[in-house]
Amino acid sequence: MENSLPPIPAKRYFTIGEVGELCCVKPHVLRYWEQEFTQLRPMKRRGNRRYYQHHEVLMVRRIRGLLYEQGFTISGARNKMLESITEERPLKSDSLADEAHFGALDASGAAIVDSLEGVHAAQDFLSASVRNELLQIRDLLAEAG
């Protein structure tokens, strides 16, 4: 089904309507997914207007594929997205406090650690996306020059 989606134009920002058309998803669904998937955070400008970047359009397509084509639930798709991001960035053994030194984490502490890992994973995903976008721009400039 993803092959039937229109190609993503070479633009820096996309409105919610454009993303809806590019991903065959209605704008209200995109707003809902922003609440459910912490990685999906479009820039907001005047009047709370959303502007999506290329990597976010790709992310919406990935979420759409997980939900509509592969049959994942929202929770399952959220876990799959986090899992794919953490596979790209393996957790360092020294990144979390040593349990023997600080004691076992309680449930609320574990939730905080999970949310921080999600933030770090999202930051790494954005860094990789920016790098890829810069490489694409470099290639386009090389072709034009």
Oligomer: single chain
Count of folded domains: 1
State the name of the first-level CATH class.
Mainly Alpha
End-to-end distance, in Å?
A: 36 Å
Number of helices: 6
Assign the structural class, choosing from mainly alpha, mainly beta, alpha/beta, alpha+beta, or little secondary structure: mainly alpha
**SSE order in H/E notation?**
EHHEEHHHH
SSE layout and pairing:
Blueprint lengths: L13 E2 H8 L3 H10 L6 E3 L3 E4 L1 H16 L4 H15 L10 H4 L4 H38 L1
Antiparallel strand pairs: 1-3, 2-3
Helix pairs in contact: 3-4, 4-6
3D architecture notes:
This protein is mostly helical. The protein has one domain: Multidrug-efflux Transporter Regulator, Chain: A, Domain 2, CATH 1.10.1660. Helix content is 63%, strand content 6%. The chain has six helices and three strands; from the N terminus they run βααββαααα. A three-stranded antiparallel β-sheet has the order 1-3-2. A hairpin with a 3-residue loop joins β2 and β3. α3 crosses α4 and α4 packs across α6. The longest helix has 38 residues. The radius of gyration is 18 Å and the shape is globular. About 12% of the residues have low confidence.
Descriptive key words:
3-stranded antiparallel beta sheet; Multidrug-efflux Transporter Regulator, Chain: A, Domain 2; 145 residues; mainly alpha; globular; single chain
Q: In brief, what are we looking at here?
A:
The chain has six helices and three strands.
